[in-house]
Amino acid sequence: MKKIGILIIDHGDITPEMARQSKTRKEHLHLFSDEVKKFSSSPGANPHKDSCEQLTGLLIKKGGFKNLEGGYMDFMHPTLEEAFKKVVEKGAKKVLFVGGLEFLSEGSHPLVDLPEEVQEIAEKYPEISVKFSPPTFKSFEDRIVNMLIRKVETESKIKACP
Hints:
By secondary structure, the chain is an alpha/beta fold. Helices cover 44% and strands 14% of the residues. It has helices spanning 16-21, 25-31, 47-63, 80-89, 108-124, 142-156, and strands at residues 4-10, 68-72, 94-99, 129-133.
């Protein structure tokens, strides 16, 4: 059996502080540049990085995965290819790309952008078996619905109708 590496895909984004600096969509898009990749990687500097690291840590701990890394589609390091190289350096002969929390449901990134990017990586490294796990979340689970109800109740200070 081939040694498997797992790569959890996160979106990546600018920091909330940077987002607050922009007043319009055009200003916001202008901030999406290579400068974002220079941000500090210290804990708390970017909540997107912190949440991806927390998720990968929990998957390793609870799932017992020995060769798992998180990578970012945009704006942050490690990129998907950089994270791919890490699992291969640890001995993976097969790498499974799995969408993280932002990519559980069908949308343009998991249906178009991510398969294309994963395919590009696969073509660069033909000696490694590469698979992209497409989104399968098409219906809402009770846990997610209950979490959103609690959020609405907390924020609005009203109870949801039965």
